Amino acid sequence: MTQITDHLAEIRERVARASQTAARPGGSVVIVAVSKQQSTQAIATAFEAGQRHFGESYAQEAVPKLDELKHLDITWHFIGQMQTNKTRVIAERFQWVHTVDREKIALRLNEQRPHFAPPLNVLIQVNQTAEPQKAGVADSEVGRLAGVIRGLPRLALRGMMTIPPLRSTPSETRKLFERLAALHEKLAAEGIVMDTLSMGMSADFESAIAAGSTCVRIGTAIFGARAAPQRR
Ligand SMILES: *Cc1c(COP(=O)(O)O)cnc(C)c1O
């Protein structure tokens, strides 16, 4: 568990250095500690070390962990594939969703977001290379989905998210990050202004920050290896 504290310090240092190299202001990159398949004890240790944003990928796995950690002031990000039968717990228990990929999901989240809570922060997942097994919309579809989300009062459209293909080379990954940043600029010029680009994981977050990421999702580099996924 002390390793988690050390890893976190190291990641913060690397994020700060990458931000500085890219001439980005300090604090412009949020670190989301991806805690899927990690214990609540590991999460509490990271919290102790000052970490506040955590990401989970499986609603069923997340709910008991969120319950157990209710006393901690954690901002929870849902970063897994969206299934229509899981939208309610996500709308009720999370503050951010990175993986909105279709109108139906947006409508359900809007309807199910409790009225006492602030609007749910949402990102549109972009499937930049049209991988068939991966969720997300094509670059050309983002504007339309953004328009739908912006009309929903219980959702706050904050930006876009991407996961590069597993086997991309560093230079291919970098090009995809730059392409998402360019799309972000283009949409802003069209009046769709967003403030968040969720891109970069343990292996490539420095490249993502150089390209303009504002939110890196880091799992193994903080917590170590994960157990095999129990469910999808
Ligand atoms: C698991 C996961 C991560 C974290 O990946 P690491 O390589 O462990 O940093 C980031 N983003 C998403 C969407 C994930 O599912």
Offer a quick outline of the entry:
With about 230 residues, the protein is α/β, with parallel strands linked by helices. Helices cover about 40% and strands about 15% of the residues.
Number of strands: 8
User: What share of the residues does DSSP label as strand, in percent?
Assistant: 15-25%
Q: Please list the strands of the largest sheet in the order they lie side by side.
A: 7-6-5-4-3-2-1-8
Rg (CA only)? 17 Å
Helical fraction equals 40-55%
Q: Which outline best applies?
A: globular
Total helical segments: 9
Low-confidence parts, pLDDT < 50 over ≥5 residues? Answer: none
Bound molecules: pyridoxal-5'-phosphate
Structural class: alpha/beta
Order of helices and strands: HEHEHEHEHEHEHEHEH
Largest sheet: 8 strands, parallel
Can you describe what's shown?
- This protein has 9 helices and 8 strands.
- The protein has an 8-stranded parallel beta sheet.
- It has helices at residues 2-21, 40-48, 59-68, 87-93, 103-112, 142-150, 170-189, 205-211, 220-223; strands at residues 30-34, 53-56, 75-78, 96-100, 120-125, 155-161, 196-198, 215-218.
- The longest helix is centred in the first third of the chain and has 20 residues, at 2-21.
- It binds pyridoxal-5'-phosphate (PLP).
- Pyridoxal-5'-phosphate is lined by residues 34, 36, 57, 79, 163, 201-203, 217-221.
